[in-house]
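Re: beginner question about structure tokens

> Can someone show what the tokenized structure looks like for a real chain? I only ever see the sequence side.

Sure, here's an example I had lying around. Input first:
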Amino acid sequence: MPEKEKRPRGRPPVNSTPINLRLPPDLLAQIDAERAKLDPEPTRPEFIRQVLEERISIVIEPLPPSAETPETAPTWIREAAARFLLLGARLIRGRKMNAVRRTQAEFYERLAEIARKGEVGPDSPGRDG
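And the corresponding structure tokens:
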């Protein structure tokens, strides 16, 4: 007689990460009030997942194609990119330096310089074709 397959104990594995979330009572009451408006009423975790997915889809919505080229991009975009790169360089330089980190910081600083000057794009000097 064949032996029964033993099933593993506990919850089956899922492809997700659990999080522990503390909410103030007034926010929890608002969540419950919004859940009650839906038919069928979702569980709290499911409702929070739905709200997050809806919000993220709005925030991460892809930008429409633009006719701007790097040469015609507004200065503020180039400046923002440069500041972001310089921040990365500062964060790297703030740690104990070694040859790799020094090279990374110098690379970020050079990219920031290129971004500020607008030296990017297919016709930029120094680009391999």
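Each token stands for a local structural state, so reading them left to right follows the chain. Residues 75-93 form the longest helix (19 residues).
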